[in-house]
Design a protein that fits this description.
Layout (H helix, E strand, L loop, with lengths): L2 E5 L2 E4 L4 E8 L7 E7 L6 E7 L4 E4 L7 E6 L4 E6 L8 E8 L13 E2 L3 E6 L1
Length: about 120
């Protein structure tokens, strides 16, 4: 059974940093593309960053490019999202996710599995 558990959220001030972690079980990172989504109150869920582990290529949405960095530890089956220079508009519940088709990780509609989210709140 595929399971994903995100952690590391919290309340920070604008300009500060947070690192989210996602512990995965029930599958091998090498076989899946993995990514982070977020959903702010009243908004649709959006893809933030992802990794196609087949070739280690990464994708970051324009809204976070240059501030957020996705990485993974394929031995520990753990994924990370380093978030720097946080802004109030980054406030959302962040989810980690995985999809079986391990290429073009930015095809957000292909994601098959989602974990429980972790709340990130950025105050101004």
């Amino acid at each position: 059974e595929v399971q994903l558990q995100a952690s590391g959220g919290g309340l920070v001030q604008a300009g500060e940093s947070l690192t989210l972690s996602c512990a995965a079980s029930g599958f091998t990172f090498y076989d899946y593309a993995i990514g982070w989504f977020r959903q702010a109150p009243g908004k649709e869920r959006e893809g933030v960053a992802c990794i196609s582990t087949s070739d280690s290529s990464t994708y970051h949405a324009d809204s976070v490019k240059g501030r957020f960095t996705i990485s993974s530890d394929n031995v520990r089956n753990t994924m990370y999202l380093q978030m720097n220079s946080l802004k109030p508009e980054d406030t959302a519940v962040y989810y980690c996710a995985a999809k079986i088709l391990n290429s073009y990780c930015e095809l957000w509609y292909e994601y098959d599995y989602f974990g429980q989210g972790t709340q990130v709140t950025v105050s101004s």
